[in-house]
TrEMBL record:
Sections of the chain in a coiled coil: none
Name the UniProt record assigns to this protein: Nitrate reductase
Cited Pfam families: DDAH_eukar
Taxonomy of the source species: Bacteria, Bacillati, Bacillota, Bacilli, Bacillales
Matches recorded under PANTHER family: ARGININE DEIMINASE
GO MF: arginine deiminase activity
GO biological process, one term: L-arginine deiminase pathway
């Protein structure tokens, strides 16, 4: 028998960046904006857990009122029908704790990046544990999890917002602390993000998407009285057109800024906000409306329910 001479270790590491391998090894998952053509989302259809809210405890969860189960499911289905009619694949978190009624607000569980998902750790204890089932669903469909917020950090996904491939807004407040933001920032900078816009979310607000959102490549919609000057100044420096929404009724009760862009210049927003709709349309953005009055009883709407998994890069085929 011929002797085989082994000359040292023959397994050499690949030096290919993760981003170049991801599509072949994991799947087509990517997000670097709020507006690139939407391809995939992950959601949680209102399940048995929303029945946990009753007339006796809805105040403990900071809801306006208990939801009608069938109506909430109907409104959720109508939104996903809009997504599918625009070519969006809708994935679901199938399992959830029955004492976590806010689980339908999936944006808070995931902040998506160009290289995979950051699984969040909610700021309030009444929501912690939802992320376990989110991670399970992400793993099932092959989305890489690049980090789970850990240690002393907490961060809701709706405390982060993409502006462009180089720029992200990260907010601190009741739902994200400095340690949680630092963990997110570390991962983003590792992926090439160069500019972090820090946003101190005011007392009385949970997330960014009740105060600011992106509707087109250079169009931001915001509540001017509670968005810091430094944030707006940086958007202006990037040549953004600012659409100022000042109708307090629509902002507070209609969640008019809580919309999702289907592609640059086309959004789906909660119905019943005519003043806001008119201003956004005047800025050249096409608006599709969806009834959300039942979902709004939980102080959330379209953007809250939708965690992005895949958007075309800006300037790509979906622009």
């Amino acid at each position: 028998m011929r002797e085989v001479k082994v000359q040292g270790e023959r397994w050499f590491p690949s030096t290919t960046p993760f981003s170049e391998e991801m599509k072949d090894l994991w799947g087509d998952w990517y997000c670097d904006s709020e507006i690139g053509k939407l391809r995939d989302v992950i959601m949680r259809k209102p399940g048995e857990e929303i029945k946990f809210i009753t007339e006796n405890n809805f105040g403990d969860f900071r809801w306006k009122a208990p939801m009608n189960f069938k109506k909430a499911q109907q409104q959720h289905n109508e939104l996903t029908d809009i997504y599918r009619s625009h070519g969006v694949n809708v994935h679901y978190v199938e399992q959830q704790r029955e004492d976590r009624p806010n689980a339908l607000f999936m944006r808070d569980q995931v902040f998506m990046t160009p290289e995979g998902a950051i699984v969040c750790r909610n700021g309030i204890s009444a929501r912690r544990g939802e992320e376990r089932y989110t991670a399970e669903a992400l793993a099932k469909i092959g989305v890489p999890i690049v980090r789970t917020i850990n240690g002393d950090g907490w961060f809701d996904g709706a405390c982060g917002m993409w502006i462009d491939r180089n720029t992200v807004i990260l907010g601190t407040g009741a739902r994200a602390n400095h340690e949680g933001v630092a963990q997110v920032e570390y991962e983003l900078r590792n992926m090439g993000v160069t500019d972090i816009i820090h946003f101190q979310i005011p007392y009385g607000h949970a997330h960014l998407d009740g105060l600011i959102n992106i509707a087109d490549k250079k169009t931001a919609v915001l509540f001017p009285w509670q968005v810091p000057y430094d944030v707006v100044k940086q958007l202006l420096d990037l040549d953004f057109n600012i659409v100022e929404i000042t109708n307090l009724e629509e902002l507070k009760w209609g969640s008019c800024i809580n919309f999702v862009a289907l592609e640059p210049g086309k959004i789906v927003m909660p119905s019943g906000n005519p003043d806001t709709k008119g201003k956004i349309e005047d800025a050249g953005v096409k608006v599709i409306e969806a009834d959300m009055d039942e979902i709004l009883k939980g102080w959330g709407a379209i953007h809250c329910m939708t965690a992005f998994l895949n958007r075309d890069p800006i300037g790509g085929t979906g622009s």
